[in-house]
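Ops channel
N.P.: pipeline sanity check, posting one input/output pair.
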């Protein structure tokens, strides 16, 4: 059983926490700007391969521009006797803009948690999992919509409703809430 939290925080402790957050956010933001394109490219590559298998399309190539990763899928069109190419531009910042904030919150929790290596590993895997689910649902949803418009896939009202519901939930979770969710999970699971 975990011990109860202390009742009050001193002004000195609160000031230390704020300074730790601001400093760690600044450092992590600089590091993140250096690796975010690699992260986005890797995530989209893995997800696109899986989505291609699910949707029975061919994953052709992936193009990278600053902050945008664009996978291209193809499917034969039996009516026009050709191939339909579907391009899905995905901004890395659309799902991973708050990574520095998440890790700054985790850095701020450093004095308050035990088993830090495990805590940070679990938090990182949780963050990657959220991004993975977000990307998977985004690509599957957009690919289905474009294939439906091209007449290559039937997109029933039930299927559209389920895609929209799950996509909306994943999008809401990712947009701004993940940092606090991961911080709260880490604190509650690993607090001293």
């Amino acid at each position: 059983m975990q011990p109860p939290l202390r009742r009050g925080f001193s002004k000195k402790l609160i000031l230390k926490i704020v300074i730790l957050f601001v400093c760690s956010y600044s450092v992590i933001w600089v590091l993140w700007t250096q690796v975010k394109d690699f992260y986005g490219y890797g995530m989209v590559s893995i997800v696109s391969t899986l989505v291609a298998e699910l949707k029975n399309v061919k994953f052709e190539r992936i193009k990278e521009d600053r902050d945008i990763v664009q996978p291209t899928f193809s499917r034969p069109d039996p009516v026009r006797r050709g191939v339909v190419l579907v391009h899905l531009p995905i901004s890395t910042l659309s799902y991973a803009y708050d990574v520095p904030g998440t890790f700054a919150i985790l850095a701020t929790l450093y004095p308050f948690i035990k088993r830090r290596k495990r805590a940070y590993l679990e938090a990182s895997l949780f963050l990657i999992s959220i991004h993975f689910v977000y990307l998977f649902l985004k690509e599957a949803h957009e690919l289905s919509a474009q294939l439906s418009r091209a007449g290559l896939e039937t997109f029933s009202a039930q299927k559209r409703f389920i895609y929209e519901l799950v996509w909306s939930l994943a999008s809401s979770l990712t947009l701004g809430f993940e940092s606090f969710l991961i911080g709260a999970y880490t604190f509650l699971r690993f607090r001293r």
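N.P.: looks fine end to end. The chain has a mean pLDDT of 86.
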